[in-house]
Q: What sequence folds into this?
């Protein structure tokens, strides 16, 4: 009888401990996550800015639980949200959100801003956006705020143990080099020289992020910029991708991987991981039906040819089944397409992500943490 009572007491203690652990906020359960970049990963920073590069009005967000536009350029979740799911964490908040304070800082932060590029003159037509240099200054500011909450030593551990995602480059072509015929940058540089120039600038950005403590950085390449509905509307008669823009992406991406390999040799480890988002996109652009899509040329929300003209608004054409479309608006994937892309982050071969996929990274980092 005494033995049964003792066992029951221990069971109560264990259940209580489990309940307490379950009650801990997500910030204590998963590594921090930081996001830098453009509209593919912006989750609402531009909501707080006076700029035309915003997604805070319907029908954006139509497939979120409360059908509310959040600032994500999607019908629902974007890539950072889905990566957070795989990390077992709540979505990171936009850095400019007033809700990002106290314990929420431990989850990480999203510094991304729609319209930006590697270069500061990319996206000038959008006026007030957070260029990458300022995003990095915000990362420094974030660390000051984090130190005030958890102290210097713990703040360093949070950043060193974090995962970073950075998505840049597409706008440097679409909204800079090829923005208009004979653009200033296209007169200044041949395409090969321009690619070398922006990659040299990008290398400095990544060095700075590493110097600020980041030790696992996912760096996405340029996607199929010649195949987005906006470009098809301007340049395609039959839905075929724009050859010149595709040529730029195909030239840029291998050189990005080479640059990341050089950086890893420089810092002495696999810090920077190259993600070939174009290859992931290409799979379902070339054969949408094989991946459960009806179309990879027409946007779900828009107007004009391929629904690729103008902005996605309440007066736009809107598809009924977002899951059957690769593109949500003139430039951005649907949530379902984002999920397929992130799946390649998780378990893709070296053709998709190099030098290792995210599942391998998470496993290796967990083992290293246990050893320490």
A:
């Amino acid at each position: 009888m005494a033995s049964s009572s003792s066992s029951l007491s221990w069971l109560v203690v264990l259940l209580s401990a489990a309940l307490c652990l379950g009650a801990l906020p997500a910030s204590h359960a998963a590594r921090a996550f930081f996001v830098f970049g453009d509209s593919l990963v912006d989750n609402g920073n531009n909501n707080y800015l006076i700029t035309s590069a915003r997604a805070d009005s319907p029908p954006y967000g139509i497939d979120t639980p409360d059908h509310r536009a959040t600032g994500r350029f999607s019908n629902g979740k974007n890539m950072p949200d889905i990566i957070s799911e795989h990390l077992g964490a709540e979505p990171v908040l936009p850095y400019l959100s007033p809700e990002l304070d106290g314990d929420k800082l431990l989850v990480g932060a999203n510094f991304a801003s729609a319209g930006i590029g590697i270069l500061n003159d990319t996206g000038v037509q959008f006026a007030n956006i957070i260029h990458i240099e300022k995003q990095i200054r915000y990362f420094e500011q974030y660390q000051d705020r984090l130190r005030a909450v958890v102290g210097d030593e713990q703040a360093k551990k949070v950043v060193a143990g974090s995962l970073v995602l950075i998505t840049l480059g597409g706008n440097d072509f679409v909204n800079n080099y090829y923005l208009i015929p004979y653009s200033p940058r296209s007169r200044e540089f041949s395409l090969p020289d321009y690619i070398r120039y922006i990659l040299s600038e990008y290398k400095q950005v990544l060095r700075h992020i590493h110097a600020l403590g980041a030790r696992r950085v996912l760096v996405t390449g340029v996607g199929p910029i010649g195949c987005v509905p906006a470009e098809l509307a301007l340049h395609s008669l039959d839905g075929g991708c724009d050859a010149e823009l595709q040529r730029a992406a195909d030239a840029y991406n291998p050189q990005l991987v080479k640059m990341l390999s050089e950086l890893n040799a420089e810092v002495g480890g696999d810090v920077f991981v190259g993600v070939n988002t174009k290859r992931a996109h290409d799979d379902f652009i070339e054969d949408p039906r094989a991946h459960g899509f009806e179309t990879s040329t027409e946007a779900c929300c828009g107007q004009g040819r391929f629904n690729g003209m103008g902005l996605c608004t309440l007066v736009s054409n809107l598809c009924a089944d977002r899951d059957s479309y690769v593109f949500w608006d003139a430039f951005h994937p649907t949530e379902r397409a984002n999920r397929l892309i992130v799946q390649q982050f998780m378990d893709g071969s070296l053709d998709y992500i190099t030098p290792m996929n995210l599942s391998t990274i998470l496993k290796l980092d967990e083992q290293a943490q246990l050893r320490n």
Q: What stands out?
A: Residues 1-29 have pLDDT under 50 and may be disordered. Residues 243-267 form the longest helix (25 residues).
